[in-house]
Amino acid sequence: MNLYQLRYFAELAHEQHYTNAAxxxxxxxxxxxxxxxQLEEELxxxxxxxxxxxxxxxxxxxxxxxxxxxxxxxxxxGIENMRRYARGEGLIRxxxxxQLGVQFIPRLASRFLSLNPDCRINFTFHGDRTxxxxxxxxxxxxxxxxxVRPIESDDLSCVPIDRQELVLIVPKDHPLxxxxxxxxxxxxxxxxxYFNNKTGLRFVIDELFEKVGxxxxxxxxxxxxxxxxxxxxxxxxxxVTPYREILLKLNVKILPIVRPAWEGNIYMVTNKQTYxxxxxxxxxxxxxxxxxxQ
Length: 294
Description:
- By secondary structure, this protein is of the alpha/beta class.
- It folds into three domains: 3-86, Arc Repressor Mutant, subunit A; 90-163 and 266-292, D-Maltodextrin-Binding Protein, domain 2 (3-Layer(aba) Sandwich), CATH 3.40.190.10; 164-264, Periplasmic binding protein-like II (D-Maltodextrin-Binding Protein, domain 2, 3-Layer(aba) Sandwich).
- It contains nine helices and 13 strands.
- The strands form four sheets. Strands 4-3-5-13-6 form a five-stranded mixed sheet, with helices on both faces. A four-stranded mixed sheet has the order 8-12-7-11, with helices on both faces.
- α1 (3-15) crosses α2 (18-25) and α1 (3-15) packs across α3.
- The chain is rod-shaped.
- This is LysR family transcriptional regulator.
- Keywords: DNA-binding, Transcription, Transcription regulation.
- It comes from Schaedlerella arabinosiphila.
């Protein structure tokens, strides 16, 4: 028994005429008769009987038709779903640094959907810290992750897609607030609010101070940049942090860092060991075109 025989059986049951059914199936009438005979022989019962110039289902044929109809419907739905996925439809699961969920990720997703109006594409959005995002990527919870530079790994593919600006923030009444820019070596006498070692930014900022050749005095550590903003605004210390527009509304002075030279990036990360669906691949290719050609 094969799929062709089941489709032939369903068509003949509908047409109740061998010639008409064969024409609809684009096969010869002898081929259809042979297929039905093989099917009946395998099942051990007769499915059709003569009815004038046509044919009709037997009692067993009616019962079998119900099973075949349900089975073909399930199969056809599955085939159609696979074809939709092949056309680039389906689900895209994104993991990203929480701060990227304000503009960066929504802008990219919205733009991608506007360029593919005829495709049924859905997104899931999850914000977190870099270590948790990479763990989720390895556990196949996400298709794409957007974070600061991860530690080198054989199972991950990382592509820089956007620049991230680091600045020094100090309270507005701080001695350093008189500056218009800053060298980090001139800040080492003041206590720092620092990202803890659970964050990807800790590694990035540590690299900056390695270039200076000295480590800052760390007064407090946290993994939330909003907490760092608040602590600096209320005089608990100074901090190196990514530039965010919200800083303009706080009691802090924002100072560009002129030394040491540094260029940071946001990375798009994929799991090399995971199959990328056409939808995910299309979105990834779109991001590379959209951002890297700017």
